[in-house]
Amino acid sequence: MPGQSEKIALFIDGANLYATAKALGFDIDYKRLLREFQSRGNLLRAFYYTAVIEDQEYSSIRPLIDWLDYNGYTVVTKATKEFVDQTGRRKVKGNMDIELAVDAMELAGHIDHMVLFSGDGDFRSLVEAVQRRGVRVTVISTMTSQPPMVADELRRQADEFVDIMQLQDKIGRDPAERAPRESRGEPRHNPQFLQRDPRQRASVDAGGDDFDED
C-alpha cells in the first residue's frame, strides 16, 4: 500500500470509463472516486477528458462536465469535428488522446504515481514514456466483460493493472441512491454518442450519425 506522501494524478478517459462501467452494469460515483484516491496519497490532479458536440441544443454530458468542474476535477474538453465520408454519411470525430498525453508528460516530473482510467491500447506508448521518467503507472479497466475492455498491450505495459470490478464497492453508485443523488444535482453520466468499443478506434451509430475518435 503506497504511503500517504506519494504524489498521485488521475487521468480519466471519459468515453472509455463510461463504456467500461456500462458494460459491467454499474454507474460511477465521481465523488466517491475522488475520495478513494485522496485517501491513497497526495492527489495532485484528477483530469477528466471528453469530447463534446457543441452544436446540439442539449448535450447529455454537459451536466456531468459542469458538476465535475465544480467538484475537484480538472475537466478537459474539445469540440468534435464533423465531416461527410465517402458514402455520404455524416461522421463526428473527437479524439482526446493528444490532450491526455501532453498533460501526462508535463506532470510526470511532479508525480510518483499515474492512474490511468482507460483500456485503450493507443496509450501503451504514453505509459512506457511516463515509466521512463520514474513514474509508476496503474491502469484501471476490466478483463471481466466479454470481450475484455482493456487492450492486452496496455495491460502488460502497466506496472499494475486493476480490474475496475475490484473497486465497484468503493467508486460505484448504489442504484438505490441514484434518484436521490440526481435530485440533488449530481448527474448521471449517460452520453449516448460515446457508446463505442473502447479498445479500438471505431465509429458507432448515433441516431443516424457516426461518432469516431480517430
Describe the protein's architecture and organization.
The strands form 2 sheets. A 6-stranded parallel beta sheet has the order 3-2-1-6-7-8, with helices on both faces. A 4-stranded mixed beta sheet has the order 4-5-10-9, with no helix packed on it. The protein is α/β, with parallel strands linked by helices. It has 8 helices and 10 strands. It has one domain: 5'-nuclease (Rossmann fold). The longest helix has 11 residues, at 14-24. Mean pLDDT is 81; it is low at 189-214. The protein has helices at 14-24, 30-38, 62-69, 97-107, 124-132, 152-157, 168-171, 178-183, and strands at 7-13, 42-52, 74-79, 81-84, 90-93, 113-117, 136-141, 160-163, 204-206, 209-212. Helix 6 (152-157) links the parallel strand 7 and strand 8 (160-163). The termini are far apart.
Brief digest:
With 214 residues, the chain is α/β, with parallel strands linked by helices. It has eight helices and ten strands.
Topology:
Blueprint lengths: L6 E7 H11 L5 H9 L3 E11 L9 H8 L4 E6 L1 E4 L5 E4 L3 H11 L5 E5 L6 H9 L3 E6 L10 H6 L2 E4 L4 H4 L6 H6 L20 E3 L2 E4 L2
Parallel strand pairs: 1-2, 1-6, 2-3, 5-10, 6-7, 7-8
Antiparallel strand pairs: 4-5, 9-10
| Whole-number mean pLDDT | 81
Helix count? 8
Unreliable runs: 189-214
Largest sheet: 6 strands, parallel
Strand percent estimate: 25-35%
- The shape, in one word, is globular
Query: What is the ordering of alpha helices and beta strands?
Result: EHHEHEEEHEHEHEHHEE
Secondary-structure class: alpha/beta
Largest sheet strand order: 3-2-1-6-7-8
Helix fraction, binned, reads: 25-40%
Number of strand segments: 10
- Straight-line N-to-C gap: 37 Å
Radius of gyration: 17 Å
**CATH domain topology:** Rossmann fold
CATH architecture title: 3-Layer(aba) Sandwich
Q: Regarding CATH, which class?
A: Alpha Beta
CATH 4th-level superfamily: 5'-nuclease
Number of domains: 1
